[in-house]
């Protein structure tokens, strides 16, 4: 039976006296022709060396318009860290999650001195609609000519960019390449990369000043009372409950998404286990509006800190204390006076810790000695506050 619809023709030949003679053709169904072309394009696309450029290579220059039509040239950002996040297309599920995460971490990325660009092959008008629909605050670049995607080796045969993020150092070289990308945690993941690379003045995320109208409480201040829902179970937990029968309580701000907070989970857990028998209660508070109660509960159920993690809706308690980053700790004595405030220790990397500020403060407090220092600048991801 011969297919009579649209076809492709494979020509048959034979050799006669050194000459090639056509014998006829084989009729192929049109669908097979399309499939053959698609497979060929896929193979040729990768056979042509379309691989993301390696770490250490010089970052290819570009000059592309953003969602407002303003042109950004990579050369103008020499001397700064640059985050260049390629993604396939506007208004798609994975790309929406990825860009939401970048915008949610924009304050932390900016605090580290980084310029943040997300880039795809859609035009400025498409990017503008995407930003308006999702409330995106970072810059989206329009690579309509696909030159940047080609230069960085991320252009797929389908004509869109592969999801790959490059961190470019101040000297203009590729310092890190993130591939694959976790779309839901992309912002915090990039923050962590920059911190590991030493971005910022001291290699850590810089503390963000409290928002206008919020004052961070210092040692000697009266700790505000609170009564917040436990993320893992029904019911409320009050500061007064923690003070009752204990010599003091540590209130520490945490996050289910911040990589710095995540790096401290085991240390906080160990501190709680060490000092609980000595009369110190621990409680954690998550005040990030970007994290739902279910997310917080699921994350810290797995972390198994051994003490309650409370949810601070609309960051009300964070504002009362002036908590700015995660992690950030307050030691409160039985009478409700803050005795220590700040960092847990001096390094995100547990193996590199030289000064254990919170442990030393607790030891001195329990011994009835003066706590020195009683306040140390915290570092980590900023608390994601509600707009007021």
Query: Number of DSSP strands?
Result: 19
What share of residues is helical? Answer: 25-40%
Instruction: Report the biggest beta sheet as strand number plus sense, adding barrel if it closes.
Output: 6 strands, mixed
- The CATH architecture term of the largest domain is 3-Layer(aba) Sandwich
CATH topology annotation of the largest domain: Glutaredoxin
CATH superfamily of the largest domain: Glutaredoxin
Number of domains: 3
- Tell me the overall shape: elongated
- Quaternary status: single chain
How many helix segments?
A: 11
Distance between the termini: 73 Å
Overview of this protein structure:
The chain has 388 residues and is of the alpha/beta class. The protein starts with 6 loop residues before the first strand and ends in a 6-residue tail after the last strand. The strands form 6 sheets. A 6-stranded mixed beta sheet has the order 14-13-12-16-17-18. The longest helix has 18 residues, at 30-47. It is built from 11 helices and 19 strands. The radius of gyration is 28 Å and the shape is elongated. It folds into 3 domains: 7-47, no CATH class; 63-196, 3-Layer(aba) Sandwich (Glutaredoxin), CATH 3.40.30.10; 227-382, Glutaredoxin, CATH 3.40.30.10.
